[in-house]
Amino acid sequence: MRAQRLGWAPYALLLPSLAFLAVFFAVPMVRAFGLAFRDAGGDWTLASWRTMVDDAGFREALRTTLILIVLIIPVQFVLAMAMALVVNARLKWSGLWLYVYAIPLGISELAAGIIWLAIFDRQGWLNSILEGIGILDRPFIFLNYQERGWLIFAIVLAEAWRATSIIMIILVAGLQGIPRDFFEAADVFGATTWQKVRRVILPMLRPSVQVALILRTILAFQAFAVVIALAGSGTTVLSAEAYRWYYTIRDSHVAAAYAALILLLSVACTVLFLVLLPTREEQMG
Amino acid sequence: MAEIRLEGITKVFDKKVRAVDDVDLTVADQEFMVLLGPSGCGKTTLMRMIAGLEYPEHGRVLIGGRDVTDLPPRKRRIAMVFQSYAVFPHLTVFENIAFGLRMQRTPKAEVTRRVEGAADLVQLTPYLGRYSAQLSGGQRQRVAVARAIVMNPAVLLMDEPLSNLDALLRLTFRAELKRLVAELKTTTIYVTHDQVEAMSLGDRVAVMREGKVVQVGTPMAVYDRPATQFVGSFIGSPPMNFLRGRTERENGYARVHLGAEALTIPALPARTDGEVLVGIRAENVVAEATPTPGAIAARTEVVEPLGSHLLVTAIVGDQRLKIQARTDFPAQPDTPLWLRPEPDKLRWYDPATGQEIAAG
């Protein structure tokens, strides 16, 4: 009844954001799919997809992307959970840690990649320090483009440093929504810290964990600048391949196929998390 | 055996607020002790220090002779019923009750047996498979109680467990709780701001004010002989009457002047002389419609019929007091009446400190 009295006003107010979404997200997405499934003449075809899959870089890119996701997300979740618990512990200065932890969020992805490049580079800080204290007598080449393991390790480290705090912030917000009585009840009824985390905090934090997982996985599929900065052409990921096909090879159809693939994988993961972590209403007090 | 002994417990918040101030209190094994006081008196903080959810700045907490002051809650053999119940929303009633046993890795068969036993005691058996959101407030309260008693704790702590229930349920649960705790014989500490609850449940009541315990005693003793003016006005409905008076001794008799009226009484506490506060409960004053020896003249101001009796507000000189009169008493506003306090029910307080002047 209220809606009736409001008339068209709510829809008019929604219009700017709808227009924004349509122009900058919906239209490009539809066009990207159009590019991916059509040839230069405008006929429907899977040729771009075949080119993408047959390309030498494809398997490497897909594999590295998935390896990064599998490595980064658990590491980040464990770290973010620990950080969130520190912030939420309300010890002396624990509020300060929220801001300290959030500092990397203010640094752009590319800048973060360059910072870590400066650390791991042949003449970088890590080598200078190790040489300075006498552990190495000549620089160790961490970012050896023949050694994918070291490259991936460096990327995981840089990504964990850069983007763990976004998960932490979601978890802190979730933790603060849980009344303290529940934690105290767990204490009184004999839970150790680990039991408290596993039996009370994580289950009650499930909605936040779900949001953070979805957000972080989607962002991991889009990882780009850190990979370029640290690995150069040493390894590649899906988004880097999309970039290469668009700017270097100048085939926008294959680039669009990569973009569409990233989108489909993101949607698949989102659905997976929604199914694996259902939030049943009767369980959410 | 689980006697609780608190020795010189002090808790200071933000370096200046003394929430609990040098409290000594002993709760006997199997005793039901109620901590009673207005909000902010420190009763909940005191209980949380017994639970290990807060740590005192000074003093010691002993449970069953063991110093637990620095131990975390899980090492104290306590269980607690929270005011909000804190029933875990992601667990069924069964798993909520089983929570503490699971934390101790109790064998499965024993968990089932004990949970079913506890659920039976609080009539939750049909609801064991439900989640908290599917329960009423009263049922959640029972889950919280069952989760605590299933642990066979040395000490059972209850923080205003009835305050979130509606008035009728509260009355039912009060009696139920009393029966349950009497059966279990667990040493219990119960925090409340409701003096009726405190009176009806406690073996003894510790009345707190501004972080200090002002009086400890059986409900009847605390009601009958309040140690301070505060206790007298906090416990009882209506509160105890306090009248300013002046005492005088004469040929073995004593007299209290209340304004223009004077009351002759057989004896006064030894230390009473001059100004006093006279305390008397409403039910310890007999109302008379005609002048009677030993009664003082007063005027009726308000008459409140309460079914079982009349609550009469009377004025003596310039002071008000509330008295209970039988329902057939012919009370009318603005008419005179005569009041005869039962001499052995008169209590004497120092007007400066509010402390009782001990009988002599």
Automatic annotation (TrEMBL), chain A:
Residues 62-273 form the ABC transmembrane type-1 domain. One of its GO terms (cellular component) is plasma membrane. The keyword Cell membrane applies. It is found in: Cell membrane. This is ABC transmembrane type-1 domain-containing protein. Belongs to the binding-protein-dependent transport system permease family. One of its GO terms (biological process) is transmembrane transport. Gene3D superfamilies: MetI-like. It comes from uncultured Thermomicrobiales bacterium.
